[in-house]
Amino acid sequence: MILVVDVANVVGSRPDGWWRDRAGAAERLLARLASFVGRTVAGPDGEDVEIARIVAVVEGQAKRADAPDGVDPDRFEVVRAAADGDTAIVERVRAETSGSPETSGSPERSGADLLVVTADRGLRARLPSDVRVAGPGWLNDLLGR
């Protein structure tokens, strides 16, 4: 499964002072996320899922956040949104499900092979209907945040 993370939405779901250092908060989340690449975890529905790859979308001040050192860029990617993060997520999901060159020439896959983490209802409405979606609570629990 490919995990696509709305970093701003997940970071903003916890009142831990993230607003004082958005890039730092994003980097801390990215560091925790990186340890889950290749692991099998309980998905939001309770079924086991293997996280084959993570695409973390950052926007605004958080675009200064760096990917953790030593991660495989083919399995952990930080996407810096040109404008808003929602549009970048929708574009990436469409690219992933169409086998676009943006996804390193990956073969076309079903939206069911993706799991987008966001609580943003507007974003959820823009995603293809077969894409799985989980709220940040699931990811926060997984990360122990």
Automatic annotation (TrEMBL):
Q: Where does the source fall among the domains of life?
A: Bacteria
Name assigned to this protein: NTP pyrophosphohydrolase
Q: Which organism is it from?
A: Agromyces protaetiae
